[in-house]
Amino acid sequence: MTTEFQNLLDRLQQAEVDFVIVGGFAAMMHGSSLMPQDIDVCCDFSPDNLMRPKRSLSDIHPVHRMTTNKVALELTAKNCANLKNLYLDTDQGVLDCLSEVAGVGDFKQVRRVSQELEAGGKLFYVLSLDALIDAKTAINRPQDQLAVNQLKTIRSMKNSKRDS
Question: Is residue 159 situated within a structural domain?
Fold first, then answer.
């Protein structure tokens, strides 16, 4: 794991953001050899929870990635209520905050099918292997298809170890 990704996760955790790691980084934590280009998290999109990353990321200059002029992150309790996703560029890398995950559901459902895994000496909630396979299958981009194949192999290897 890169130092930058670990720093982003540590900042979210220290700010007590309620989140679950999903996407390519979750696949890597389960043993995939694919290297993610960003951190994807599914989080509670309540104004209180969304204001926490704003404070914890302010010194690494978060900007909205999906805008043409890279607008600085401006979150208020009022505009948080209208957000479904938050796509950010920071000095430490790309962070995508999602309110739901395809093939799994909203944050409450994602949290229900998550598990704690270690990264950089700390425990984080991560989408479970089966739920991650469901999510990657639902998204179905070429890189997701590759990840699904790896994740199914990892699941098969874990199941055969358990059975022996």
Answer: no
CATH number of the domain to which 8 belongs: 3.30.460.40
137-159 pLDDT tens trace: 999 999 999 999 999 999 999 88
CA separation for the pair 160, 158 (Å, rounded) = 6
Instruction: In whole angstroms, give the CA distance from residue 63 to residue 44.
Output: 20
**What would the pLDDT profile of 107-129 be if each residue is shown by its tens digit?**
999 999 999 999 889 999 999 99
E strands, the chain, in order? 19-22, 39-43, 63-64, 85-90, 93-98, 100-101, 105-106, 114-119, 122-127
- Give the 3-state secondary structure of residue 104: coil
Sheet of 39-43, strand order = 63-64, 85-90, 93-98, 39-43, 19-22, 122-127, 114-119
